[in-house]
Amino acid sequence: MEPVKVALLGCGVVGTEVARLLTTQADELAARVGAPLELVGIAVRRLGRDRGLGVDPSLFTTDAEELVTRADVVVEVIGGIEPARSLILRAVEHGASVVTANKALLAADGPALYEAAAKAGVDLYYEASVAGAIPLLRPLRESLVGDRVTRVLGIVNGTTNYVLDQMDTSGMGFSEAVEQAQALGYAEADPTADVEAFDAAAKAAILASLAFHTRVSLDDVHREGITEVSAADVRAAQLQGCVVKLLAICERGTDADGGEAVSVRVHPAMLPREHQLAGVRGAFNAVYVEAESAGQLMFYGPGAGGQPTASAVMGDVVAVARHKVVGGRGPGESAYAQLAVQPMADTVTRYHVRLDVADKPGVLAQVAGVFAAHGVSIEAVQQRHDDAGRAVLVVVTHSATDAALSATVDELEQLDIVDSVAGVLRVEGGDA
Ligand SMILES: NC(=O)C1=CN([C@@H]2O[C@H](COP(=O)(O)OP(=O)(O)OC[C@H]3O[C@@H](n4cnc5c(N)ncnc54)[C@H](O)[C@@H]3O)[C@@H](O)[C@H]2O)C=CC1
Ligand SMILES: N[C@@H](CC=O)C(=O)O
Ligand code: NA
Asked: Could you say which DSSP state residue 184 is in?
C-alpha cells in the first residue's frame, strides 16, 4: 500500500509524544490503518534542539507552510490562533485531513474550519481538544447522534482540578500548585488560559456545539476562573461537607420568548463530597452526559499531559488515515439546530453566601429580609466565628436566578451590619 504521509506541526509536550508513538508503534499502526504512516516532517520554531526522539534530523523544518502541502494528514499541536489557523486552512486546501488538539482555535473559529474541511472533502478531527485522552467527542458525534442530549456537566481542565485538589487536600498555595501543574505538562503555554477558565470555556463551547447540534463559540460561554477561590472558600466548602471544583455545564434552556436555547457556563462551584465529580483528583477529568434515552453516562480519565493527549491525537490520526486509505471522509459536525444562548442572568442554581457581619440582635432578620426582597429563598443559615473571633453568617439558598442573586449580593454589601460579602459560590450537584 502507498504510505499515508503525516506532517507534525509543533514538537512540544504533546507533539513530542505524538512523534514518539508514530515512530515506536509504526508496524502496529500500519496494520491498523491498512497502510504505513510515514512521518514526512516535523515543523518546529527553532532547529538544532536535541529532542531525544531518535528521528532523522532532516525531518525537522521551520517551514510549516511548505510542509503541510506534502502531507495526507496534518497534525496541528502548535496551539493558539495563528499560525495554527492559516496552516490548517492551507493543509485542507491541499487535500490533507487535519487532526488538532487546539480547543482555543476551534472555540474561536471552528465553523469556518469545519466548512473548509467539508468543502475540500477531508476530515478535521479534534478528540484531544476536550478532556485529553478521554474518548468523548466521538461518542457525542457518533454514538449518541441518535439520542437527544440534554446536559453535559463536568471537570474539563486538568490544571485547575490539580490546583483545587492540592488546595483541598494538602493545603498547598495557589501559585505553587500552578507551577507543579506546569512542570507536569498539564498547563497551557500561558497558564492564565487555565486558571481564568478560557481553556475550560473553549472546551464547553466545543461540547455544547456537538451535544446540541448547534454553534456555540467562546464568547457565548459564561466564564469565571479559579483565581478568586481563596483558602477560606475551600475551608468553607469543607465545613459544608463539600469540595470546590471548576465545572463546565452545558444545558438545554429557554430564551426570552420561551423558545429552545442552550446555557453554557464555566465557574467554580461547591459539590457535595459524595458526588461522583467530587472524587475526581489531580489532573483527571470527568464528564457526565445526560441523554433522553441513554440516561446518564460518565466519561472519566486523564484530561491533560503529553502522553494521554497524544493517545487521543493518535486515535484521530488512525481514523483519518483509514478514511484516506478507503477514500472519503468520516462524519462531520451538524449545526442545524441554531439554538439561541440563554443569558447567564436567567440561569438558575443554588448559592452559598458567606458574610462577615456584626454580632448583634436583628442581623439575621435584616440579612434574611434582603434575600426575601429579591425572591431568593433560603435553604439553611449558619452562624459561626472565624479564627479571629468575628461573626460569619453562611447562607445557602434554594434555586434562584443569577440575576436575583447578584441583586441580593449588591444590596447586602450596602448594609451597615455587613462588613463584607466574603465569598459567593454556586452549589451544584444537589436536588434542592
Ligand atoms: N499539554 C496538554 O496537556 C494538552 C494540550 N492540548 C493542546 O495541544 C496543543 C499543544 O500543546 P502543548 O504541546 O502542551 O504545547 P507546547 O507549548 O508544549 O508545544 C507547542 C510547540 O509548538 C511550537 N511552535 C510554536 N509556533 C510554532 C510554529 N509556527 N511552527 C512550529 N512550531 C511552533 C512551540 O515552540 C512548542 O514547542 C495546544 O493546542 C494545547 O491546547 C490539548 C490537550 C492537553
Ligand atoms: N491545560 C489543559 C490541557 C488539556 O486540555 C488542562 O489543564 O486541562
Ligand atoms: Na478527548
From this structure: T
* Annotated active-site residue in 203, 245, 324, 360: 203
Sole residue written with cell 436566578: 401
Residues 234-256: tens digit of each pLDDT: 999 999 999 999 999 999 988 88
* Domain spans of the chain, in order of start: 4-133+307-326, 137-302, 347-427
Does the structural domain 347-427 have CATH classification 3.30.70.260?
Answer: yes
Task: Provide the CATH number for the domain formed by 4-133+307-326 in this structure.
Answer: 3.40.50.720
On whether ipTM exceeds 0.85, the answer is: yes
Nearby residues for ligand 3 (ion, Cβ within 5 Å)? 127, 131, 134, 136, 312
Q: Assess contact for 189 and 126: CB atoms under 8 A.
A: no
Residue closest via CA to ligand 2's atom 4 equals 304
Task: Evaluate: CB of 303 within 6 angstroms of ligand 2.
Answer: yes
- Are 243 and 278 spatial neighbours (Cβ–Cβ below 8 Å)? yes
pLDDT tens profile 42-101: 999 999 887 888 899 999 999 999 999 999 999 999 999 999 999 999 999 999 999 999
Give the distance (Å) from ligand 1 centre to CA of residue 9.
9
Dist. CA 294 → ligand 1 center (Å): 36
- 34 DSSP assignment: T
Any atom of ligand 2 within 6 Å of the Cβ of 127? no
